[in-house]
């Protein structure tokens, strides 16, 4: 335990906890395992906005019946390199796992696999899907639309979601480029995390309901596009977000733009659109991984600017966070993240019990000196 009450929880415990919670609401072990792997991966990689912090929305959607618990995604039509998938309204990671695996299979045959999905749900960190392709030696891309939170340049009302982009690629010796980013200034979950910790958000992140900039996370209703205002080229983030929508909602025939349900609305089915791509580098010039490693090292070996210690490439901050977790024996959670998870799942009796168990178990290990203090 640290001075602010944060606690270190081993990855396996977080995983088992998520599987149990989803089991309580009727999700089978395999599907619950995929969701657990996704959420643990988010926290492990340092994206706390999309780990345990998001568990309650999956539980809520399954409990309310707006997400189906007993269906499977299916292919609507396909060519050798493409497929249109109906997610049949199951959990986003189940649709996503099906689609990226299909894209990888097609890329093995055709050099590229491009899969468009409709009738899906929130899929968590886009990086989880890109990395699945990297594990098969492929370049992986993943995109999703989402509830409206991005206010287009010159407007005051949100139309687009935080519509993330992931492009991940295998380099030499297990290294990889992993760009995984929202097309808003940040993921909205970072605003929620600031709220939970009682912190203000930096200038340039978000706006209140009237479209006025705010640093109060409790007032922040929507976000600036990546780049910020028009003066700082926010129209590029706005354009990228529309590009994601084109690949997702428009290509698949799902909801799009402000037709998407409002954030956290468990009354209505989400019908999100998503896009998953795998590209086999072997279909192009040999030596891809060597050249990518060389390029990444051109950046990493640059002289850092004054006050900085090192130059990173996309994927490095997450690698550093994972190394820190490994060293300390698990994921460090702010106490309010745990409290929030408990408070929002009052009808899940095993949850309180299980969290208490984690706390106690962790405390025992800590007392025994097994867990390092950060
Ligand atoms: N499912 C959804 O609807 C949804 C929506 C939005 C975001 N997300 C997820 O939220 C997560 C967080 O998104 P974000 O945009 O806030 O991420 P972020 O701003 O923390 O990081 C974005 C990217 O920048 C890279 N990066 C960070 N610092 C760097 C540096 N100094 N040098 C080089 N590269 C650097 C990271 O490796 C990452 O690839 C992502 O995993 C994203 O997929 C999901």
Automatic annotation (TrEMBL):
Which residue spans traverse the membrane?
Answer: none
**Keyword Oxidoreductase (UniProt):** yes
Q: Give one GO molecular function term.
A: oxidoreductase activity
Question: In terms of domain of life, where is this protein from?
Answer: Eukaryota
What InterPro entries does the record tag this protein with?
Mal/L-sulf/L-lact_DH-like_ah, Mal/L-sulf/L-lact_DH-like_NADP, Mal/L-sulfo/L-lacto_DH-like_sf, Malate/L-lactate_DH-like
UniProt key word Oxidoreductase: yes
Q: For this UniProt record, give its keywords in alphabetical order, as a comma-separated list.
A: Oxidoreductase
Task: Indicate the family of this protein.
Answer: Belongs to the LDH2/MDH2 oxidoreductase family.
- Protein name stated in the entry: Malate dehydrogenase
